[in-house]
Structure formats: structure tokens, C-alpha cells
Design a protein that fits this description.
The protein has 86 residues and is mainly α. The protein has helices at 10-19, 30-34, 38-48, 55-66. The chain has one domain (3-66).
């Protein structure tokens, strides 16, 4: 995959690839990964790290600790997938 269209860092891409059952260097589904919403991507990363079922809690803590507001997406925008966005 050309580096010019890579939206996420190599470390994030590797985590998500592995969570999808690929080898870390397998770029065969990179287009799909790049098109994921931030919430979906975050969820894949957490699951790969063994943190399952806490995406909303972690998202809330990040907002509260850093005093930032992360954008919210509706279920329709994230295609109904189990993401940390509303």
C-alpha cells in the first residue's frame, strides 16, 4: 500500500490487521481498515490488546481526564457495529 494514503500509524495498522486475523505486515485489507471509523478502529485495537467490553468506559475516561470532547457517531454512521461512539 502506498504510504501516501496510509491514514493511521504503522503500529495501529499492525494491531488492527492482527485483530482481523492477518499477519502484522499483511496489507491485503488496508483499504478496509483505512475506511473504518475512529470508533471502530479504537475498538479493534482494544480487543487486540485484550481489553474487551470497556471501549465506552475508556473513551469516557479520556474525555474526562484530558478535558476534551471526542466526536460522537450514531449507530447508522458506524454501520451498526459495536463501537465506542454513541
Amino acid at each position: 500500500m502506498p504510504k501516501t494514503i496510509q491514514r493511521y500509524s504503522p503500529a495501529i495498522m499492525e494491531r488492527v490487521r492482527q485483530n482481523l486475523g492477518l499477519k502484522a505486515e499483511d496489507e491485503s485489507r488496508d483499504t478496509e481498515i483505512i475506511e473504518m471509523s475512529p470508533g471502530e478502529l479504537f475498538n479493534h485495537c482494544l480487543i487486540w490488546e485484550g481489553i474487551i467490553g470497556y471501549t465506552y468506559t475508556i473513551r469516557s475516561m479520556v474525555e474526562e481526564i484530558y478535558r476534551i470532547k471526542l466526536p460522537r457517531l450514531t449507530g447508522k454512521q458506524n454501520k451498526g457495529k459495536d463501537c465506542f461512539w454513541d
